[in-house]
Predict the 3D structure of the following.
Amino acid sequence: DQQVKQNSPSLSVQEGRISILNCDYTNSMFDYFLWYKKYPAEGPTFLISISSIKDKNEDGRFTVFLNKSAKHLSLHIVPSQPGDSAVYFCAAPYSGNTPLVFGKGTRLSVIA
Amino acid sequence: GAGVSQTPSNKVTEKGKYVELRCDPISGHTALYWYRQSLGQGPEFLIYFQGTGAADDSGLPNDRFFAVRPEGSVSTLKIQRTERGDSAVYLCASSLTAGPWETQYFGPGTRLLVL
């Protein structure tokens, strides 16, 4: 049973436009969420996080929105750049513990 | 400073063989995690250490998998009697301390192929 779901395996966006990556979760005990970015042959790198006491967190071009009632979060990248092309993973610490539960990832392609 | 390093970067072995995968965490990080990523999937938790002890090994798939961290720094993931289904990228991560708010920093992974 997947507790963190990323239902879009891939997304293609024009350079300069907004990229929106979505994530749904089933475990209402999750109270902290993270986005990781992964380039080929590299490990995931932390991008941005959000606590369940907030509904928005912004860091430069990256904004994460959390809708607790819908158990949904999204990552917005604006403006998108070719260097943003990577696989993006949504993750949450399992039941307040330390190990992370990851979604399957969404591959973002930003086209110049 | 140096990030998390993993060796080897690639490992090809035959079914039934024994393999060891090594992880060097960021200096000073007390928590160390092992994840496994299969094709088309996100990383899946295997085991994590706080210091020298395994704090949670609930993700290890069976008793063929074992991990150690004898001095609280370097860790080795050991897989006995490898099977083709063990083929995956094995990722190691470390964080300053254990805790859901601590950022985990990942190494580049070891790609294991079992023929």
